[in-house]
Amino acid sequence: MLSRSAFIGSSLGISAMAAMRSPAAALAAAPPGASIVPPRIDAGRVIRTVVGLRPFRAAGFVLRAEPFGAKVLVHNYGHGGGGFSLSWGCATLAADFVADRSPARAAVLGCGVIGLTTARILQNRGWQVTIYASALPPMTTSNVAGAQWTPTTVFTTDGATPAFLDVFRKAARIANRAFQLMVGPAYGVRWLDNYVLKPDAQESGGEIDYATRVGIADLYADVEPVDPATVPFVGYKSIMRFSTMLMEPNTFLPAVQRDFLLQGGHIVVRSFRAPSEIAALHEPVVFNCTGLGSRALFGDTMLEPVRGQLTILEPQAAVDYIYLVSDPLLYMFPRSDGIVLGGTWERGNWSTTPDVATQARVLSGHEALFRKD
Fold first, then answer.
1. Domains of the chain with bracketed CATH
2. What is the three-class DSSP state of 21?
3. Where are the alpha helices (DSSP H) in the chain?
4. Cα(154)–Cα(159) distance, rounded to whole angstroms?
5. Tens digits of per-residue pLDDT, 197-213?
6. What is the dihedral angle through the alpha carbons of 13, 222, 238, 210, rounded to the nearest 10 degrees?
7. Residues 6+ apart with CB under 8 A from 360
8. Residue 234, φ and ψ in degrees, nearest 5
9. Predicted model pTM
10. What HEC string does 145-187 produce?
């Protein structure tokens, strides 16, 4: 039997071929026994509001190796809103760049989801790894992620090349399979139903349309249209259901960090102000997983922030599904640490200060989605 570590240490991810129901099929009712309980939404239930800056590149993430003086430098950054979803896949492909070298010492820059998964892949291939990072969980950008398995908002349609899309698809497939092997409370990964809401049946957009366009639709399970009369959402003539995984960052990141340390990894808390400081490290191979930091550190001016603000309500155990709206952008993720309400995608905005007006708009937008009994 293939162990979790053996699989994650390999780049030969098995495609997760999920059975899909045709969108042309008769409208289904909500699943038998489904409990689509509307979340209790009001300002009095807000426990925190957080802001994260997604590291976005219109052309897609950077995954390449290059000489760096006497070292090898492998870049793995710029995953936009798909960092969690693509993490194990991009980590595996990044490690493949040094597959022809005898495992030795490697430095990983960054301790978010990309840095941690890259470090674990390397460890499973026999490397001695040290992570260098200025922030550790729970203070990383990855801790602010919604972290549903949907590798969307990673690139723009007109910005990505066919070669990039091939790499993207491979990374998505490897990552999807890796997360399947981690389902359970230990890593905070679980399967949930998602409801994609559209006001018009002919409107394009949404996760399934996107997945079909980019060639990963087979990674979305149990896809079918749902009769709007059987669910509590109001004003939507087209509702599509599918199943995918939700990762809880505040469970997943500490668990992977713990695995890294138990396998002999080391973490050094420090910042880098210039490439010359990285060149002075003693490790012969360096993996750059600094996310948005790569703009200043390596001069990538194509890398830009996309601001995301999340409003977190008190936990509500009865809410056990996800909903997604494209226009206006709204999404809800039910996590053990709170109900996550999102609705922002602000390119070029560097502010990490929560905006009160944005919070009010998001709360009212989510509240309006449900029928009032």
1. 18-367 (3.30.9.10)
2. coil
3. 4-8, 83-96, 113-124, 162-180, 207-214, 249-262, 275-279, 294-298, 356-367
4. 11
5. 998 876 666 788 889 99
6. 10
7. 43
8. -110, 140
9. 0.91
10. CCCECCCCCCCCCCCCCHHHHHHHHHHHHHHHHHHHCCCECCC
